[in-house]
Design brief:
Blueprint (H helix, E strand, L loop, with lengths): L1 E6 L6 E6 L7 E6 L7 H12 L2 E6 L15 H14 L1 H16 L5 E6 L1 H13 L3 E4 L16 E6 L7 H10 L5 E4 L15 H18 L2
Parallel strand pairs: 3-4, 3-5, 5-6, 6-7, 7-8
Antiparallel strand pairs: 1-2, 2-4
Helix pairs in contact: 3-4
C-alpha cells in the first residue's frame, strides 16, 4: 500500500510518499530523494523497501520552493534539479528529513535513513543531526560535513568510476569514519537507478543486499 500523505515540518507542509508493508513493520525508514524529486524511481525504491518489511516515508524536499516536482534524468532536468536543490539548501532539507523520521518514531518504530545522490549526503546529515542509522548512496556533497560526528551506524556505497566522487574524496570518508563500511562498485554515479545511463544491475543488486543487511542489524 502506497500513497501521498501530508507531513508537517519546520519548513512548512510537504508531501511524502508513504509505503507500508503487508504486515507489522520491521522498522521505519526515510528514503531521501535525488535532485530529481520524489519521482517514479524514488517511489519505486520506497515501495521496494516496504516489500522488505519497512514503513517508509519519502518526503518531497522541493515542496517548500516548488511543490509537485518530478524530473527525468536528462541534462536539462539535472540543471533544474541543481537549482531547486540550491534553493532548498541542506539545512532546510535536513529539517524535513528529521520531521519524516519523527513521524515514524512517533509510531513506535526504530527508524533509519537511506539516501541517493543529494539524498546520500542528506542521509549522512540524518545520522549526524538526527541520530539515525543511515545508508548513503553516492553522496557527492558530503565532504564539507565530515567534521560532524556520527551518532549512529552508517554505511556508504560509491562507484569507482563516479567522476563527482574521486578516490581522494572516498579516502576522506575513510579517515573521518574509520569504523563505517565503505563499499566500492565497478560502476559510475547513480548506479542504483534503472533510469540513468550509469545504472549497473549487478552493483545495484549487491548494494541492495548489503543495505538490507545493515538495516536488519541496526533497526532491530
Amino acid at each position: 500500500m502506497a500513497q501521498w500523505i501530508d507531513l508537517d515540518t519546520p519548513a512548512g507542509p510537504v508531501r511524502a510518499w508513504r509505503a507500508d508493508p503487508g504486515g507489522p513493520p520491521r522498522g521505519g525508514l526515510v528514503v531521501i530523494q535525488e535532485i530529481f524529486g520524489v519521482n517514479a524511481h524514488i517511489r519505486a525504491v520506497a515501495e521496494r523497501f516496504a516489500e522488505a518489511g519497512y514503513a517508509v516515508l519519502a518526503p518531497a524536499l522541493f515542496d517548500p520552493v516548488e511543490p509537485g516536482v518530478e524530473l527525468g534524468y536528462d541534462q536539462s532536468a539535472a540543471a533544474r534539479g541543481v537549482e531547486l536543490r540550491n534553493a532548498v539548501g541542506f539545512d532546510r532539507a535536513s529539517e524535513i528529513v528529521g520531521a519524516a523520521a519523527h513521524r515514524l518514531q512517533d509510531e513506535g518504530l526504530r527508524t533509519g535513513a537511506v539516501g541517493f545522490c543529494w539524498g546520500g549526503s542528506l542521509a549522512f546529515l540524518a545520522n549526524t543531526r538526527h541520530g539515525l542509522p543511515a545508508v548513503s548512496y553516492y553522496g557527492a556533497r558530503t565532504l564539507p560535513f565530515l567534521g560532524e560526528p556520527a551518532r549512529a551506524p552508517i554505511a556508504f556505497h560509491f562507484g569507482r568510476h563516479d567522476g563527482s566522487i574521486p578516490p581522494e574524496a572516498i579516502e576522506q570518508h575513510r579517515q573521518a569514519l574509520p569504523n563505517a563500511p565503505i563499499y566500492l562498485y565497478d560502476a559510475g554515479h547513480g548506479f542504483n537507478c534503472e533510469l540513468r545511463a550509469d545504472y549497473d544491475a549487478d552493483s545495484a543488486a549487491l548494494a541492495w543486499r548489503r543495505t538490507l543487511d545493515f538495516l536488519a542489524d541496526n533497526l532491530k
